[in-house]
Write a structure and sequence with these properties.
Elements: H1 3-9, E1 20-21, H2 28-36, E2 42-43, H3 46-53, H4 62-75, E3 80-83, H5 92-102, E4 106-109, E5 112-113, E6 116-117, H6 120-134, E7 139-144, H7 154-166, E8 171-174, H8 182-188, E9 194-196, H9 205-211, E10 215-217, H10 221-238
Parallel strand pairs: 1-10, 2-3, 3-4, 4-7, 7-8, 9-10
Antiparallel strand pairs: 5-6
Helix pairs in contact: 2-4, 3-4, 4-5, 5-6, 6-7
């Protein structure tokens, strides 16, 4: 069974209001909780994993990130996609090799570095090399950081999405896009579209799906809520 093919199939044939919801485990224990809840697949958040390892977001050494992803994959029977930030400076072939060694079936790849957007044409060429190295063995979710970097014009995100899809990305992720521009993004972007949900804040996953999202992830939100719950428990114990 090609687990990446199974994972890819979860993104297609979805009806509005029924997006693929992918909780973000930050360690093996949280991954098992999400699997036991019945989710068909998971998607690790780099910031959440970083926090679990004692690092600030963006500062996790590559070896530790890949090891953490491998532990999560081993802990569950469902497919796991991994957020590997900008690829840690690895050549596409090595990046793909290391991802496959963890057992991950997909990856998030960012299009900014050091707070600046990458040249979209150069990034598309790099994504094409990742796709060529991976074949159908990895589901590539190309993150689009325009909104995150203060570029609010949806057209800029749509332009980048077209380049990345043409390069072989399976899905695009305009992180930070306001919900009210989602229908415009949906109309201008081919293929699956990832949006982030914040439990208790903003639209629900179903509402985001109705607006055009194909899949829903949570970034580090679930890990942060877990930490807050633990703080409250610790305060009660200490009082």
């Amino acid at each position: 069974m090609n687990r990446a093919r199974v994972f890819r199939s979860l993104h297609h044939g979805r009806v509005p209001g029924d997006p693929l919801v992918l909780p973000g485990p930050w360690d093996a224990a949280s991954a098992r909780v999400f699997e036991e809840a019945g989710f068909p697949a998971l998607a690790t958040p780099s910031a959440g994993v970083a926090a679990s390892l004692g690092y600030a977001d963006g500062e996790t050494p590559a070896d530790e990130m890949f090891a953490a992803v491998a532990r999560i994959v081993r802990a569950v029977g469902v497919p796991v996609s991994a957020d590997v930030e900008g690829g840690y400076g690895l050549p596409p072939g090595e990046l793909v090799e290391r991802l496959l060694e963890t057992g991950a079936v997909g990856c998030n790849l960012e299009d900014s570095a050091d707070g600046e957007l990458k040249d979209p044409h150069e990034h598309a060429e790099w994504l094409a090399e990742v796709r060529a190295a991976a074949g159908d063995g990895l589901f590539v979710n190309a993150r689009i950081d325009t909104f995150l970097r203060g570029v609010g014009d949806p057209a800029r995100a749509i332009e980048r999405a077209a380049l990345y899809v043409a390069a072989g990305a399976d899905c695009v992720y305009p992180i930070g896009a306001p919900a009210d521009v989602l229908p415009l993004l949906r109309a201008g972007i081919q293929g699956p579209l990832n949006m982030v949900a914040r439990p208790g804040e903003g639209p629900s996953p179903a509402e985001l799906g109705a607006l055009g999202a194909t899949r829903i992830t949570f970034g580090p939100g679930l890990q942060r809520r877990s930490v807050q719950a633990l703080r409250e428990i610790a305060a009660r114990i200490a009082s």
